Amino acid sequence: MIEAPAPAPVSVTKTAVTGSRTSLPAALLDAARHIADSHNAEHGAPITAAQLAMRMGVALPVATAALAQL
Prior knowledge:
mainly alpha; 3 helices
């Protein structure tokens, strides 16, 4: 019977989450700010991340991150 070699030891390094935000390009943030301001002026209510995602054509996590940085 042939034995399989023992697996090599694995080193795991943990990194602390510091709560830093994803850095988005300035042009994307400018566009998000413009859309959010326009929406607020037109509707009298802040834009949601889902609405911003649809208006900008970006994924929901990107729109959520943009709103968090505004």
